[in-house]
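Risk register update: the risk of archive-format incompatibility is retired. Evidence:
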Amino acid sequence: MPNASNRTRIYHEFSALADYIFKLPRFLDAEIEIEKKKLFDYFPKSNDPETDQRNAGLRAMRFDLEFGNLLGRFPRFMAASNLMQACSLFENALLRVCRTHGSFQAWSSAQQSKGVAGLFRFLAATGRPAAALSFGRQVEIALLFRNCLVHANGLLALSRNETEIRRIIKAREFVETERRGKYDPAGDFWRAKIEPTAEGPALSTSNNYAFVSCGQFRDFLLDLLMDSTEAAADRRGRLTPSQKQ
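Archived output:
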């Protein structure tokens, strides 16, 4: 049964990626401790005031460089790359699922549009529009955010979707409807926001957002593979990463 095989593969692939994304920040935690030790291993204190003054300055220089990376740049790189990986895995899995439909090949050959937008149009044509599936709106938004980060490094002035992105952030549409009222954009589990940069306002996403998106992608695809009765029962019983907060 192709659908059963796909369900198993999708469940394990996205669960594994979510687990990887959840654990990856521990790499930064470990590196922070290593760098703390290196500050004094490389530039130790001594009994010579002149040497101590020079080493203190060198420690400060290394601290600014290494901790600027570990606490600032690296988390941004990690969050963006993890979201891109989750989106890429989703697009691959969505194509695989669509190909199991008997009419997909003929429909695809007759269409000019390609990519995930074309796959969503195919779903709509077969009576399974994205908006009717689990986390359909959040899935669309994750792909929109990914595009902004890929093509403009999040810079809104270079995004054709600046107005839409601003509206989504303000309305918190990237958060599941039932959790939207409790979502704290300033809390430790923040997901997406617009931040000022030297070049102008830019979209910023957290590693938490990539983690939650994995579960949403997974549940969207599993819902797609089920008939309406199965999907309703499964949604009531399944624990998603977005609920592990």
